[in-house]
Design goal:
The chain has 523 residues and is an alpha+beta fold. Helix content is 55%, strand content 18%. The protein is built from twelve helices and twelve strands. Helix 2 runs antiparallel to helix 5, helix 6 packs antiparallel against helix 7 (299-330) and helix 8 crosses helix 9.
Length: 523
């Protein structure tokens, strides 16, 4: 049970709801954060880029008219230094290139990432070109623009061959971006926490009616058919609760009607059986007298008298069996436990019915196997099983008693009754203990009321044991009874309570029990 509860906890509805909400919140937070980060990063870099390009272009256009053209190396160096000096901060690095001449305002390695493609784009296009590069873990903005002259002044009408490049580190912008990333990360954790909280609240709202439905279903399964659910709201769970209540009400009504009909049928069978006892007793007395005088009657009359006597005996046995079954159905069958020698009890059962020489036995030595059972009901069980084997099987019929010990159940007595007949067909095996069940194809003969095995089964269950039927590999049927053994008085109080749990029955029920007991003792 523990592993099942662990699995149910791992894959329960609450866990699934929490995980689903957390995943949705995580995906939403990450997606929103990624989109916000991308837009904010683009905005920060775009603003910085536009500002730098605009300042760079204005600075170049302002300084170019102050220098001679074509420039020499010193003029290029002065020009690059002046452009860099006019920046809003001191992190500009300027490269001025005129044909084969070049000069920088700072270290030459600042333009190590200047690609040939950008040089070609600046030389061939009359527009400002820029790109972002990364060097040593730092982000840089590289801007390039051509300078045009007309009549000694800066214009946009013709190319001069002068190219100016600018590199600017973007630490400040990267700091803004890093701060934005941290903000997004910090916002994701509360979002996940809020999602888990909402999931728990939602799971609580969903699971409360589900748990109530589970408890109600279990209560119905335990027999409390008047269980109902309280209905709140008008959602799907409320509809489910209403449907459950309607189903439970219909089930309660159906079961009540079935119980009423079953109780009526049992009462009818018990009353009819009881009412038949008096006329059957008179008929039995009359047939006994007729049996004694049958020898002096003519042959046809004697045959009729013997037939009536046999059928009267069968009818009396059937009535007694019906009364015994009715006591089991009413829960009025009582156990009268006694500490006995089981092997000796089985020997007495065979001897009292004249089966000692007919049935082969394999029993323990006297006193070797003792237990607390109801001797009369044990006698009924063994007698019915042996009689069934003698009636429907073929000799030899054997009776075997042994003890079985297991760590869980302790000692158990095992009684086996087997015959050497054709066995029981597989289609009949599930029904051999049913009441009134008889199959002509199962045995060579079909006599009796069909209640003997059912009565034996009820007596075994009353002891807390089991009975089963099977076919032996070598042929024939075998019936196995397993009874728990109680060797001490620790269960005396339990047996006493079980044997007298129905002492409140009326006198009519006690009379039927005594009559049934007298009948079984005479079998």
């Amino acid at each position: 049970m523990a592993p099942r509860r662990v699995l149910r906890g791992l894959y329960g509805l609450r866990v699934r709801l929490v995980v689903a909400f957390a995943l949705v919140a995580a995906v939403a937070a990450v997606t929103t954060g990624a989109l916000a980060f991308r837009e904010a990063r683009t905005g920060i870099l775009q603003q910085s880029q536009d500002t730098v390009i605009e300042d760079f272009r204005d600075r170049v256009d302002t300084l170019v008219p102050n220098y001679r053209f074509p420039p020499d190396r010193s003029g290029l160096a002065s020009f690059a230094a002046d452009v860099a000096r006019g920046a809003r901060n001191d992190d500009w690095r300027v490269l001025a290139v005129y044909r084969d001449l070049s000069a920088t305002s700072g270290p030459a390695d600042a333009f190590a990432e200047l690609s040939p493609a950008m040089r070609a784009s600046v030389a061939n296009r009359r527009a400002t070109v820029f790109q972002r590069v990364s060097r040593s873990g730092r982000s840089w903005l590289v801007v390039g623009m051509p300078v045009t002259f007309a009549g000694g002044t800066a214009t946009t009408n013709g190319a001069s061959g002068l190219e100016v490049y600018l590199t600017v580190p973007q630490q400040r912008e990267q700091g803004y971006i890093d701060a934005l990333v941290s903000a997004v990360e910090r916002a994701t954790v509360p979002a996940l926490g809020l999602a888990v909280l909402l999931a728990l609240l939602a799971a609580r709202g969903v699971l409360r009616p589900v748990r109530a439905l589970r408890r109600a279903t279990r209560s119905i399964a335990e027999g409390r058919l008047d269980t109902r659910l309280s209905v709140r709201g008008s959602d799907e769970l409320a509809d489910l609760s209403r449907t459950f209540n309607e189903t439970a009400a219909a089930l309660e009504g159906s079961v009540a009607e079935l119980r009423r009909m079953e109780a009526g049928a049992r009462r009818f069978a018990a009353d009819v059986s009881h009412e038949l006892r008096t006329p059957l007793a008179a008929m039995s007395a009359v047939t006994d007298v007729l049996d004694e005088d049958a020898a002096g009657l003519d042959e046809d009359t004697a045959t009729a008298v013997r037939l009536i006597s046999e059928e009267t005996t069968k009818l009396a046995a059937l009535v007694n069996d019906l009364m015994e079954i009715s006591r089991f159905d009413a829960g009025a069958a009582a156990l009268h436990m006694d500490h006995i020698d089981l092997a000796e009890s089985l020997r007495r059962t065979l001897a009292s019915r004249g089966w000692t020489g007919t049935v082969e036995t394999e029993l323990p030595e006297p006193g070797a196997l003792r237990g607390r059972v109801d001797p009369r009901r044990l006698d009924v069980v063994v007698a019915n099983l042996v009689a069934n084997a003698l009636r429907h099987g073929r000799p030899p019929v054997s009776l075997r008693l042994s003890e079985e010990r297991t760590p869980d159940t302790g000692g158990r007595a095992v009684i086996e009754v087997s015959d050497s007949g054709d066995g029981i067909p597989d289609s009949v095996l599930p029904h051999v203990f049913d009441r009134f069940y008889k199959s002509d194809s199962a045995r060579t003969r079909s006599e009796g009321s069909g209640l003997g095995l059912a009565i034996a089964t009820e007596n075994v269950r009353l002891h807390g044991g089991t009975v089963r039927a099977a076919n032996r590999p070598g042929g024939g049927a075998v019936f196995t009874v397993v009874l728990p053994l109680r060797r001490d008085d620790t269960d005396h109080e339990h047996d006493h309570r079980r044997g007298h749990e129905h002492d409140h029955d009326d006198q009519h029920g006690h009379e039927r029990d005594a009559a049934g007991r007298a009948k079984e003792e005479s079998r």
